[in-house]
Batch of 4 targets.
Target 1
Amino acid sequence: MRLRLVLPFALLPALAPAIQAQGRCPVDENSNEAKLQAFYAAPLAFSPSGVLGGLQPGSIQLGVDVTLVPEPSDDISRPTICYVGKDENTRLSPVFPRPHLRLGLPAGFFAEAMYLPPIEVADATPNLASFALGFARSFNENLGYALRAHTTVGQVKGPITCNTDALQTTQPDEPCYGDQVSEDTYKPNIIGGEAALTWRWLGGLTGYVSAGLSTFKPRFQVGFTDLDGDLDNTLVLPDRMTRFTFSVGSAYAINRRLAFTGELYSAPEDMTTIRLGGAWTIR
């Protein structure tokens, strides 16, 4: 069995039958279509990934983290509105890599950014950006707090609905009747924020525990043309969804520039995951 996509959030109603009627397919928050899109939005949320504040003004830090992504449960893998009648085969990559940049600003503020350029990886082409702005202040040498707001925008394109393995040319009334893979698009559209208690222990170990809210209105558009030349460009439109989020993160400094990072991140209604990575302080 071949692993289809390196970017886990790209595979939403993967290998699902193309919708016969073109147009818009609104779905409510309780539909499996919405729950599946929410499931794959969670790995895209721009969380602190182990480092929250603590940067001096003018300090620049490069980081990378890898998010572990479980498969969705069978309960949400069977569509209830737009793709009725077929279990989804959601083959996912187990990880989602993400580079990011942090910048220390005056008066305790800090900024963060992430960008994945439109370079094809396996069968997916991302074009995603995340941004965050925060404020951190210490109570004393060991304890402090931080506030942080974040957003993730952009899209992922690829043969999500009808990839090579799903194409067939013998049954016009069945899904994926064609000889060209689909070019589908997923947009996460995430905005969120969190408040955190931060701490420092023994100099080289820092950490935080945070709680927040994440709101998102994802969009998934089919892009499949069958052998008869008919285009299915159905747009699956979930309602806006809001989730409570929680995270616990830590960074261990090997020296004054290099640190290992880790975070447990949870959107309890959708999924819980672990992010592991590192950070390098340039200055």
Note: The CA atoms of residues 78 and 86 lie 6 Å apart.
Target 2
Amino acid sequence: MRVKIELERETDGRWIAEARSTGVLLYGKSKRDAVARAVALTFEVLAERIQAGEERAPRSVTFEVVGT
């Protein structure tokens, strides 16, 4: 499974990280913080979907980070 995380910087300095395929959208204080939080939340979302039987467990998960 490949998950694309898109980054954008707000005018107040915060970073937005969005992984559309998993519905993850959140803020971070820095680019690194936003990516780390998006990766962690993506794993949580995937775990919940797998436990609920909504999705099969992927063999691997690869993250692609794009943006400013």
Note: Helices lie at 31-51.
Target 3
Amino acid sequence: MIYDFPPLEAPIRQGDIFIQIPRIDFSPRQMVFVTDEGQQAAAWRDVADVQEPSTAIVAIRPVAAIVATQDCDTLRSPDITLCEIRRFQEVEKKSERTTAAKSWKDILTQHSRINQKWFYLPPDARIGFGEKMAVEFLVTIRIPREDLEDLRFLRRGRLNQIADEHFRERISEFFRRYPYDEWYALDGAEFEAYRQQYPDAAPFPWQEVKPTESV
């Protein structure tokens, strides 16, 4: 498909796909710290002003991820940023019940231009994807460069030239996009029609339907 398979010793590049990368999960409101007296539960806001480093117990789970850092920085930057890779139907909720090829075609072409929060990765047994996957730009993981270089045995492949150029542009579009509520210019009736499809949309003051005034 759209993947290349570099040798183990090849330098890390943008678009490299890793498996079993450690992702740390924790809640600042509920943390467990290790102190000289043992374990202590506390919220981060209660210990944030401590000048010395703290040691905490956190959950770690393995995930697939793709290198987002640019090539020039993957060679010398102290840290490398990766974006998590998840099942496509978990990332793009509109595809949860999609089965027909025509519907998939619309999602993977038209919706990919509209929704800038993900990048599509097709299935390929050689890279370990048994189903459609997606890069989720909202979820990033930072790993020291030298540590990631030691984990190159977990690299399954990388995007080929065409896909990598597209991936680079998608990242740029995501981080420079102008956030706005696309329904702001609709009138009241148009907004009500819009909300039937997107019930979470909140009306602007000029879109609220006012009750008819009595004479």
Note: The first strand starts at residue 3 and ends at 4.
Target 4
Amino acid sequence: MITIRPRTHAYKLIQLLSVAGEIPPGALSLLGSERVFDNLVHKLELSQNFRFDKDGQVYHTKLIQVSGRKDTRTIRLYKKAVDVLDELTPGLLKWYMAAFNNHIFSGDTQHIQRNHRVAEVLTLCMAAGIEIRPYALPALKKIGFGMIVPGAPSFYIARDLKKAGIGEDNKTTYTRLTGALFYPGGCYAVYNTRGSVMKWSGVGEVKTAVNLQELARINAGLDETKPALLLGYDPGTAFKTMLESDKSRRAEFRFDRVYPKIHFIPLNQYGIRLLKILATPDWNEKLLTALFEPEQRSYNRASMEYDAMIDNRMILSHLDSDIARLYRFRESLANRVSGSETAGADVICYPWQTDFLKSYLGDLAGLRELEMDSVESVL
């Protein structure tokens, strides 16, 4: 018999499935050892007795089912196991059935991959300790003003933003957005490109950004919402996704015009740690204060984007993994090389960013590595 308790792997998996509906098997490595979760999935596919606490009611059924092949391979709750969701949270069964069409899922590849994009975001947020349960979050308001969102970081799925947003029936709204991450003092629009270049819907994403900004103003008291998180398997694909929007006929539809700050979050353990950093109140100012002396900092007053000037070298911190800012920095450096400017440049980065930055920057800038432990200790 399996006893499922809070904070166990089985409990986390069931809770995640109750929110995401279905998840790709590879995403479970974000929650712990891949081998451990592979064994757990195999075990929970078998019919057996289980209960949710020491003295709880005993059930006999499978808990999950795995179906599909390759890109469509997916994990879902077993149909009979859905009935026990109220053991996790009273009323969860009713919420789940309404959210996932009475436990009826499409076998269409596009629908599955869309669900997987959202599921990977939810898994990463869960691993980072961010609240992801819609039924535990206060509903966002359409009008008025007040601090509705929780004081701790919380992720609102796109479908819940639609319910609160302006023009919720417009199918161009939230077409690529997976959701929004609120944290004390800020809000991120969250996208997931996974392992392939994401197609960019210029008009739809402009409307998305405007609507999200209004929701953040009403529900979190934020005057401006400009940053985005772009999740993916590797920075090269994320960068291509950002540049893919260059094909838009109008410059204002580009990804980095809609969101001037685009923080790449890898779908791995480094991404979990980076997400925690970016969800820390006033993280950027705390970090720059720790890195540089006041007289060294640029305070965004320079003609190009960099954070400090040290020994006639411009220093850019890429510890926030902002690929939009990195792109502008590189373009400015390339223009300076063709001109008469002589100041050198360096980029501060994490060791896991080094390979990509070497290939992207070439000889334009040097690299200064800083361990994540140092950044985490500062924040």
Note: The chain has three domains: 2-107, 128-273, 285-378.
